[in-house]
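FAQ

Q: What does a record look like?
A: Structure on top, sequence underneath. For example:
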């Protein structure tokens, strides 16, 4: 039976602090996508995305496993974080008083764009979005490991197992 409930940001932080080891989840986020200079949307553009993620993973291990799948030796060693501090034993990153969920993208389940709560078609906004950049540390891989840090205030829903949590 699916258990549904609504929690606040503080409760979300505590729930995510409790994650031990690799944990799979589906999250729905609402973010402001990176835009090119001169975009007519400025801060009005929002991206609502639904993704399957793995929290509690180790980036170096994930890249090493991908190297091995591609016939390499699996000796990748990640550089230290450029910003924020990962809270030991959790998938949480703290930076300047804000908290983030560090997660590996397993699969995108789709996204939509909104301008002032009006849904817009992707072709309207695509010319104004910044291009995705392949991580330099993974330039040798055919399939990259996608790591994302989701600011907790941007997570609107999370499903882990049979628990569906709406975040307000």
């Amino acid at each position: 039976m699916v258990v549904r409930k609504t929690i606040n940001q503080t409760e979300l932080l505590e729930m995510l602090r409790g994650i031990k080891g690799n944990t799979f989840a589906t999250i729905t986020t609402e973010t402001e996508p990176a835009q090119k200079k001169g975009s007519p949307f400025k801060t009005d553009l929002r991206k609502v995305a639904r993704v399957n993620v793995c929290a509690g993973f180790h980036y170096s291990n994930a890249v090493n496993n991908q190297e091995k799948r591609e016939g390499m030796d699996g000796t990748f060693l990640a550089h230290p974080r450029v910003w924020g501090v990962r809270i030991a034993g959790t998938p949480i990153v703290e930076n300047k008083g804000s908290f983030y969920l560090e997660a590996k993208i397993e699969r995108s389940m789709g996204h939509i764009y909104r301008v002032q709560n009006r849904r817009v078609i992707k072709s309207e906004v695509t010319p104004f979005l910044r291009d995705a950049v392949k991580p330099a540390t993974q330039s040798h891989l055919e399939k990259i490991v996608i790591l994302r840090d989701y600011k907790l205030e941007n997570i609107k829903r999370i499903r882990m197992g049979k628990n569906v949590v709406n975040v307000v």
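Q: Is there anything notable about this one?
A: The beta strands are 3-7, 23-31, 45-55, 85-86, 92-95, 98-115, 118-120, 147-151, 155-160, 163-167.
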